[in-house]
Design brief:
With about 550 residues, the chain is mainly α. The chain folds into three domains: about 350 residues, no CATH class; about 45 residues; about 130 residues, STAS domain (Transcription Regulator spoIIAA), CATH 3.30.750.24. It has 25 helices and six strands. The strands form two sheets. The chain has a four-stranded parallel sheet with strand order 3-4-5-6. Strands 1-2 form a two-stranded antiparallel ribbon. Helix 21 links the parallel strand 3 and strand 4. The longest helix is centred in the middle third of the chain and has 33 residues. It is globular. The chain starts with a helix and ends in a 9-residue tail after the last helix. The relative contact order is 0.15.
Length: about 550
């Protein structure tokens, strides 16, 4: 019975105490996100080399299903930038039928991951690999938009990055003044709105403004109508892909890549939603929903779908209470498709390029790079290899090589933690300050320990503490005496843990870190998240620090968490 309850979609759980107040909040959030999703769904489709309506169909069908049967309360699904590079490559080689077939196969794989309970397996992908291919995808997306941003006169843009950049440079003198001015104004408008009015949908404002200017002044710029003939109004038609067994075997590696990307991004987005909303998603239920959505979407000509971090964040900031908001967002897109599709032919491609420039910048996680550069050369090598192969080779190859390198380095780190040490009187005396047997632990302190290597794949162990955070006393001590090693993913997990405790008005103290963890945490400047005074040499000094905190009667967590 417990298993059946936990496997229920979040929508069913939330509707048990649903009210009119929650519906009004969901309605406002859903309409807001639906309008935000409008330019993005079309932009992702166009940049992928397919018709703009394919993005809308995905946003409508997949977006509704992901919210209706998913495991996250505020997740919003649809096409995202992560798929652009993969989709464009598949379409170039195998056409639209190949893409639809690949998406369907990926949907089956994702659903199987959820059904078999392997949703948590995504945690075994280390942080340097994720950041590396995210950086690479962002750069590739930006490079594909240069032609439309400047209105370059190029008949065919090569699919590979070096060839694409060479061609763009060779035709730089063919830029259109009108297109460049329009796209630049649109880009600056989006940046200004994000900076000074973040609650407003900057991409939607730029879309409407640029479209109105193009229509009123008949600007000589390329539009959705001039390139694609507009967007057909009406419901999506059932057009299943043609099954080709030879093509299925050829597309299997690409389907695995799409499934992996979809799984990673959807669970990352759900995790972000948890932090913003205070909820906790079910990864396996979420993957089952993502799988079903990716099975249904290609049957109606739609793109691959996953959880969209930016739209999910917008949904929560707009006041979403339940998955109903995500379903309303899909219905808003459907209403636009049914009643306003003819107007889409006036949308200039330059504004969609400007929107995707902003998307590429935001999804690139560029702020992670300085943190990664503080990690050991092994983590930097994994990141650089994944990034380089993503840009200059192939995303599938990049992730495979990145994972192989990470696995080899994981083995290396674990073997390095094995030591043979003689037990001497000095050793026993030095360890005395770390033992708990003779310590008086006050009621306002809870002590936890990490035992063994704290590397990628093991970092979710802290979630068990976070789940009962409301029961914890004001001070939480994390003993690191028996933590033999840590990596970048482990440090990220500790940062998230510190953030959760700070948000719950608890103070985190760390004590007894060994040489490797202490050195890496120092390089990563972990102290800025909890304050250097809250990183202690031993349990003795940690308990003394807890007494100081208790005597001052306040939470002394560092403000920068």
């Amino acid at each position: 019975m417990m298993f059946e309850k936990t496997m229920l979609p979040k929508s069913i759980q939330c509707l048990q105490d649903y009210s009119l107040t929650k519906f009004i909040a969901d309605l406002i959030a859903g309409i807001t996100v639906g309008l935000v999703a409008l330019p993005l769904t079309m932009a992702f489709a166009i940049s992928s080399g397919v018709l703009p309506q394919s993005g809308l169909y995905c946003g409508i069908l997949a977006g509704f299903l992901i919210s209706a049967i998913g495991g996250s309360r505020c997740q919003v699904g649809g096409p995202t930038g992560a798929f652009v590079v993969v989709i464009s490559g598949i379409v170039a080689k195998y056409g639209m039928n190949g893409l639809l077939l690949c998406t369907l196969m990926a949907g089956v794989i994702i659903a199987l991951l959820g059904i078999t309970g392997l949703g948590s397996a995504v945690k075994f992908i280390p942080r340097p690999v994720i950041v590396g291919f995210t950086n690479g995808i962002a750069m590739l997306i930006a490079s594909t938009q240069i032609k439309d941003f400047f209105g370059l006169n190029i008949a065919h843009v090569p699919g590979d990055f070096p060839g694409r950049m060479s061609t763009l440079l060779a035709h730089a003198n063919t830029f259109s003044i009108a297109t460049t001015l329009l796209s630049t104004v649109a880009l600056l408008s989006i940046i200004a709105i994000i900076r000074f009015a973040p609650r407003l949908p900057g991409s939607l404002a730029a879309l409407f403004g640029a479209t109105l200017l193009t229509y009123l002044f008949s600007l000589p710029v390329e539009t959705v109508g001039s390139r694609y003939g507009g967007i057909p109004s009406g419901l999506p038609h059932f057009i299943p892909p043609v099954l080709d067994w030879h093509l299925i075997s050829v597309l299997l590696p690409s389907a695995v890549t799409v499934a992996m990307l979809g799984s990673i991004e959807s669970l990352l987005s759900a995790t972000v939603a948890d932090r913003m909303s205070g909820d906790r998603h079910n990864p396996n239920v979420e993957l089952i929903a993502q799988g079903i959505a990716n099975i249904v979407s290609p049957l109606f000509g739609g793109l691959p779908a996953t959880g969209a971090i930016a739209r999910t964040a917008t949904n929560i900031r707009s006041g979403a209470q339940t998955p109903v908001a995500g379903m309303i967002h899909a219905l808003v897109l459907l209403a636009i498709l049914l009643f306003a599709a003819p107007l889409a032919r006036f949308i200039p491609l330059a504004v969609l390029a400007a929107i995707l420039f902003v998307v590429a910048y935001n999804m690139g996680e560029w702020g992670e790079i300085p943190q990664l550069l503080k990690l050991p050369w092994t983590d930097r090598a994994v990141w650089a290899t994944t990034f380089g192969l993503t840009v200059f080779a192939d995303l599938t190859v990049a992730v495979m090589v990145g994972m192989i390198l990470a696995a080899l380095l994981y083995i290396r780190k674990v073997t390095m933690t094995t030591t043979v040490t003689e037990v001497t009187e000095e050793y026993i005396e030095a360890a005395r300050v770390h033992i708990l047997q003779d310590k008086d632990i006050p009621d306002n302190v809870a002590i936890f320990r990490i035992h063994g290597p704290f590397l990628f794949g093991a970092t979710d162990k802290l979630d068990e503490i976070v789940q009962r955070i409301s029961e914890l006393p004001p001070v939480v001590i994390l003993r690191l005496r028996n933590m033999t090693a840590i990596d970048g993913t482990g440090i990220q997990a500790l940062e998230d843990f510190a953030f959760s405790l700070h948000k719950a008005n608890r103070t985190l103290l760390l004590c007894g870190a060994r040489e490797q963890p202490a050195s890496l945490m120092h390089k990563a400047e972990f102290a800025r998240h909890i304050g250097s005074e809250n990183i202690c040499d031993s349990i003795d000094t940690a308990l003394d620090r807890a007494k100081v905190i208790h005597s001052q009667g306040s939470n002394l967590s560092h403000p920068n968490v």
